Amino acid sequence: MSTEATTATTPAPDRQAAEPPPRGIGASLPSAESRVKTEGTFPYAADLWAEGLLWAAVLRSPHAHARIVSVDTSHALEMPGVRAVVTHEDVPGEQLHGRRTADRPVFASDVVRHHGEPIAAVAADHPDTARMAAAAVIVEYEVLEPVTDPEKAFEAEPLHPDGNLIRHIPLRHGDAEAAGELVVEGLYRIGRQDPAPIGAEAGLAVPRPDGGVELYIASTDPHADRDRAAACFDISPDRVKVVVTGVPGATADREDAGFQLPLGLLALRTGCPVKLTATREESFLSHAHRHPTLLRYRHHADAEGRLVKVEAQILLDAGAYADTSSEALAAAVSFACGPYVVPNAFIEGWAVRTNNPPSGHVRGEGALQVCAAYEAQMDKIAKKLGVDPAELRMRNAMATGDILPTGQTVTCPAPVAELLAAVRDAPLPELPKDTPEDEWLLPGGPEGAGEPAAVRRGVGYGLGMVQLLGAEGTDEVSTATVKVHDGGATVICAAVETGQGFTTLARQIVQETLGIEDVRVAPVDTDQPPAGPSCRGRHTWVSGGAVERAAKMVRTQLLQPLAHKFGMSTELLQITDGKITSYDGVLSTTVTEALEGKELWATAQCRPHPTEPLDEAGQGDAFVGMAFCAIRAVVDVDIEIGSVRVVELAVAQDVGRILNPAQLKARIEAGVTQGVGAALTENLRTPRGLVRHPDLTGYALPTALDTPDIRIVKLVEERDVVAPFGAKAASAIPVVTSPAAIASAVRAATGRPVNRLPIRPQAAVAT
Any bridge partners for residue 311, and if so which? Predict the structure, then answer.
């Protein structure tokens, strides 16, 4: 039957009208913001406006390292339309700020430590005037030799009063004298990946009558941003309010406080609303990037390929300031052996300051870098033994109950072998040999220089692991309130929606628990209790857990009068599809009827079990939980010109429990795609510390044409009993694993070692 006939005879609209809308946990509930975002009416920070608005611009250093001799703002202040110019002398409170360590100045005062560091900020009545005035600020520099090689940072003159070494972790586990019959070594380098958010940073600061200020920004951690701003402005935190505007994508912490603080200072100085919209170049210069990393590895294995000992040295380039480098180093050292059983491990990890751009939180920080290295080592062992790479990994796969090199027991589900078997046994994509050559999708893209005769196909594997939530004693807590009124419900929680799907999940939780269809999630600001940062999938756990607890408390309030009336406990009542029924059928009513005339609310917190810092030997129960992933990559490589095309990535992932199938699939696909960029194209080049081509033409992001077929072959639902709903975060682990799998496949196709990410063409040319 033709398509036209099928369409004409199928009563699709009537059938769709009869189907109930998706709701509750396990349903593919669409995002409440999806329509306004696709229509272009969603209010992002760059869209904000206020009466009497001034425009801001920031003067940034053109040097990676320099001494500031003088700053002359007089010419800028004399320009018509300029209302204020601020430098370090105009900061009334704390001069330094930082996510974990306060080591970063609001404005550079005596020394510039990285390209793009703020020197001054201007407010004017027109954006062009503001930019010209910023350019009119005269700064006399004494240019200094930058320290850009992290290995040389150990012996270089201190770049900061705190020195160049941010943290050193010496991990010692097992017998230092242990040795294997087979030894393989490798040196690996991981490049600087930029988060490259969809929208550049923007914000609006509005002064308050009480001498405070309101910051309308795309913050991912509003309470921390508020506290930093209050310390800088020398006012109490209750006089600073952060209102979270639409976040246009966040593959890392979205906002740099160095962007927000000048904005607020200008609003306080002028008494007028001030707006700042960064250019794409400023965005590249200001926010944090993935840590470039140097890794040296030595693996010992027995004759069967079972790991005996792993030795490694890991050096993270933190850039000019500490940011989250300590946490990234802890993850890198702790997961340096991967999801494998390793009885003996001796890892040295360092994070150092340089004059390179700042590094910080980017999905899977620390874990991605070591995954690329230890998987390359596993390929070397397999090749040396003549063993199938998947089989070698299977012999060493970690399971629940095994011990990490940190001494922590893996108590969460760890179905590593099951994940690996799923991708190994999945059917491979067909070869293009039966199609005409002019229809081949060759490496290098359409009309590329590739020749079919020079193309080799490779299959490779990657196994990855990441932590869930913060680590080493981080107090992970979130607070949520659920209010029921007028037949609907409102969730109040300061968990920022960055695209990870929290607002959708919150609606599903309340629908599931209370049987209420109409659920709204309130906008986020700092008048609400803290929920913490939007990273590491923590809001699924801690904020989702807080919403669930609050909803259950409201459920008890709703059911108690009915239970009392019928002489039974609330445990004997259930809510299903908007109806309240008792176990014996005596009671049957709707939620709407039970709620009539009532307003119910409850507030609850969720705080996972505590962790502890790593000790002087790198030992300790540092992590709340972990997630695992296996990816099989299939690539085509033109071995003459080194072009790589990723044909397919087959993914098997440990998800705990599927809360929203469509949303989970989207998160995995997005994570895999970000990993493709890290593997093949994304590397922010910084010769002598200067960012080269800070734009989206010079920085090569993967497009839809570069994205391979992504097949999710298995999602393992083995619930983590300590996590709310038993679910695990889904976004970071495919980012961590896919670059290692792609590199493994390129090694299989070319026979080359491939020891650098992103993979350069010369590394993919077969010898």
Answer: 298, 346
